[in-house]
Amino acid sequence: MSLTQYYTATTLDGFIADPDNSLDWLFTREQDEDGPMNYGAFIAHVGALAMGSTTYQWILGHEFADKPPEQWKWPYDIPGWVFTHRQLQVVPGAPIEFTSAAVTEVHQQMAAAAGDRNIWIVGGGDLAGLGEAGLLDEVIVSIAPVTLGAGAPLLPRRIELRLDETARNGDLVCARYAVVRAPG
Amino acid sequence: MSLTQYYTATTLDGFIADPDNSLDWLFTREQDEDGPMNYGAFIAHVGALAMGSTTYQWILGHEFADKPPEQWKWPYDIPGWVFTHRQLQVVPGAPIEFTSAAVTEVHQQMAAAAGDRNIWIVGGGDLAGLGEAGLLDEVIVSIAPVTLGAGAPLLPRRIELRLDETARNGDLVCARYAVVRAPG
Fold this sequence. Notes:
Two copies of one chain form a homodimer.
Chain A lengths: L3 E8 L3 E3 L6 H4 L11 H5 L2 E7 H11 L16 E4 L12 E4 L3 H12 L3 E6 L5 H4 L5 E7 L1 E2 L4 E2 L5 E11 L2 E8 L5
Parallel strand pairs in A: 1-6, 1-7, 3-4, 3-6, 4-5
Antiparallel strand pairs in A: 2-9, 7-11, 10-11
């Protein structure tokens, strides 16, 4: 069965990026690429992904900063949706659709594209609205050993979870949660 | 050696209380009182404690709400400091000192009172300043399976940590961190 999964790194105090949209607090950490809840094992089961415009532009700024557009290589070969109301720079050949439709509507397209594979919510503010719409199945976090006190919030909503798995991976505490849906 | 420890429960998104100062998101969770990083084992090594006025008033409101003051029983027999600039209701016989002095100054008094036992930072906004002053040794958290999106922040500062221990206890992910002090 296909799951919609929010898989992300976070600080101990619940920020996925610092106030300057930097992830420098994350990339300094040690982790075992073959260890618990690693990215490789996760992405192998993903068939579609979605992100907000800030995450998209972060990728452009960090992966392609010093290259001309014809040398850009989008890091994912699975279909992706970028939620934005603005005109964003296109990565040539990337399987990306820009959308400003409601997340619940786009979720149907993602589910069709993913088939029996999972849908990865990469990150970005209103994607958390999937939780309220009852469309988010899992939250999988790698918690970095730092507090920031400010930044982009992990999940700006009240969402009830159930702990399904936890393990240490290097410097990180990893945890996988099922989203508990309100009865009815 | 005496350690200054911030021991608290938090939501997955880093709040120690909801916007109404409620802990209802915490008390519904299952945990093993004899399990990893349990309160009993922790408090047995504590010789002094400190909290902010919000935490103090929360205790008064929740433990004593339906009793007259002569029936109040303060839950701790170790010396405690409550940081406040206001006049707060006194619990008869409680070993509490109200203070508006700098946290660094009070920390010396707490250390003297604690001897070779530890100092518990129960919670409250500016006590996190101990971290910046280089006086906080450990952060020990029990992470509840819920996000709130708003509330009282776990630690409103950037503090670098080192993961020393993690384990599951019932519904909670527990983690013990050493505070990494800046060189020099």
